[in-house]
Amino acid sequence: HIPGSIQPHGVLFVLQEPDLKILRVSSNTLSFLGVSPESLLNQSLGNLLDSYAFDSLKQSLSQPELENVNPLKLSLKLENKSFLCNGIA
């Protein structure tokens, strides 16, 4: 409801295919993920996902109708913790 903003309970990633390199990321990753936005830039999103979630995401992005695969169930792995979240492509 606020132009130029994302929902307060989410994080935004702008990715480049085919390796899903992080080109841009919202500024709230430190509070949500414990990782600064700057440290995420130019690395693959695969560094944050388990291999099954990463492969599933890549496969889902190749589908012609993304609304049929959303939301995507993702398992993030960060340092000493991991958690499940929904992803929207």
Which word captures the global form? globular
SSE pattern, N- to C-terminal: EEHHHEE
Can you tell me the residue ranges where pLDDT is under 50 for at least 5 consecutive residues?
none
Tally of individual helices: 3
What report would you give on this structure?
With 89 residues, this protein is α+β, with helices and mostly antiparallel strands. 22% of the residues lie in helices and 26% in strands. The chain is built from three helices and four strands, in the order E-E-H-H-H-E-E. The chain has helices spanning 29-33, 37-40, 51-61; strands spanning 13-16, 21-25, 72-78, 81-87. The strands form two sheets. Strands 1-2 form a two-stranded antiparallel ribbon. Strands 3-4 form a two-stranded antiparallel sheet. Strand 1 (13-16) and strand 2 (21-25) form a beta hairpin. The radius of gyration is 13 Å and the shape is globular. 12% of the residues are buried. The model has no long low-confidence stretch (mean pLDDT 86).
